[in-house]
Amino acid sequence: MAAVFYPATWITGQYRKAPSSLALMSSLQLQQNQNILSATANLEIHRAVIQQASCHYALGEYRMACEKLLEVVSGLMPQNQEMMKSSEEHRKPLNKPGKVRNDLRLIPCTSKSVLPFCLQLMLACFKLRAFTDNRDDLALGHVIVLLQHDWPQAENLFLKAVDMICQQGNFQYENFFNYVINIDMLEEFVYLCTTEGGRVQLELLPNQGMLIKHGSGII
User: Fold this and answer.
1) pTM of this prediction?
2) What are the residue boundaries of the structural domains of the chain, listed by start?
3) Which region among 35-49, 92-106, 202-216 has the lowest average model confidence (pLDDT)?
């Protein structure tokens, strides 16, 4: 894999100056690799974009961070299964018994490692908006969708989201059935509609709220 030189601004935590340097790096890599159709070249380009997203996150610019992360995720190329299996040992943590884990974790620049990182960073962005006093059903819905990737480890956070929905008494997320496929989650939402579950009013279909209001007017 080609070497990547990190801007000094990014390494030293100068997050305000780093994105411009990283954007230039990404542009140069794109020009150098525009004729190379390979997963390696693609990931090298994405590396700088991921670093930009990390800078935006550190600056509290969560929308920009998510836009960069989505740019990476949408451009990831599937890897050959045999290649992923052959590198499995390199991805295993090297924690020794009795040793305290470091905060800094290094991961290889591969599709299988980059995708979870991007999803976790997006989840961190949406969590800040979802679990606040200011209600934001859209952010909470995005959190529920992202939690499926790390299931069942993410179950506790999902139950926290369900508890918030129960306290609100209603929840609107029109993309629910387009993205939520986890059976446990679906069963939980079915339960919320029952008397035992609190008969929470759920608007999970496109234009469902408009249809409910229109129906109420007819009655």
Assistant:
1) 0.72
2) 1-90+109-128, 131-219
3) 92-106
